[in-house]
Description:
There is one protein chain. By secondary structure, the protein is an alpha/beta fold. It folds into two domains: 2-152, 3-Layer(aba) Sandwich (Alpha/beta knot); 169-223, Trp Operon Repressor, Chain A. It is 33% helix and 19% strand. The protein has eight helices and nine strands. It has helices at residues 11-14, 20-27, 64-77, 95-101, 119-124, 141-152, 200-218, 220-223; strands spanning 2-7, 32-37, 50-52, 60-62, 82-92, 106-110, 128-131, 185-186, 189-190. The strands form three sheets. A five-stranded parallel beta sheet has the order 2-1-6-5-7. Strands 3-4 form a two-stranded antiparallel ribbon. Strands 8-9 form a two-stranded antiparallel ribbon. Strand 3 (50-52) and strand 4 form a beta hairpin. The two termini are 38 Å apart. Bound molecules: S-adenosylmethionine (SAM). Residues 86-89, 111-113, 115-117, 131-133, 135-140, 143 line the site of S-adenosylmethionine.
Amino acid sequence: MRIDVLTVLPELLHSPLNWSIVKRARDKGLVEINIVNLHDYASDRYKSVDDYAFGGGAGMVMMIEPVYKAVEELKKERDYDEIIYTSPDGEKLTQKKANALSLKNNIIILAGHYKGIDQRIRDHLITSEISIGDYVLSGGEIPAVVIIDAVVRLLPGSLGDEQSALADSFQDDLLAPPVYTRPAEFMGWKVPDILLSGHAAEIEKWRHEKSLERTRRLRPDLSGD
Ligand code: SAM
């Protein structure tokens, strides 16, 4: 899979995409992540990527030209399945959406900034819009990282078997059961006996019951009850 991120602030993306599971997936060649600095596609000597909003009002707007040029250059090299704009009014990111994106070959994610992006980018270049929640952030870089992390951990080989993504919350509309590690007792707080019993089938049953109980209690909207 290849993911190109278009941004006016590449510095915000480098570190979060160079650690942990995303780094391992990149090192293994499971995903190629390319960060494109939109300032490189500006046409003036100040490398401008934003301008005043037509009609007035506070805040700058991301210009169409650098985005158009960057997208055209990428499209010359390969076909893209999706050109995503991160937007507070987009479709809410869910596990289901992350699963679907993990099956794509090539995607572009455009991280917005300032007051937003010229509407013509959304009308003519973008194929889908994703929100990471009902709140407004300063830029789309953190949402882009959230989307990439959620997608990359699903690529076969990203996680070791012991960390299978299928056991994560929201797969099968169930929250994950609680997990424990050593010591078996700390300050008198004990790990449930069943987990120390060695009975694989009983442990699996316990985990499933805990998943159901947590889902009913914390997210009754998921449990279908
Ligand atoms: N004026 C815009 C509005 O009210 O919808 C918000 C612009 S916001 C300050 C700048 C950029 O951050 C947006 O263009 C978008 O790319 C990104 N952004 C902010 N909140 C987001 C969210 N919840 N999900 C995805 N992207 C978000």
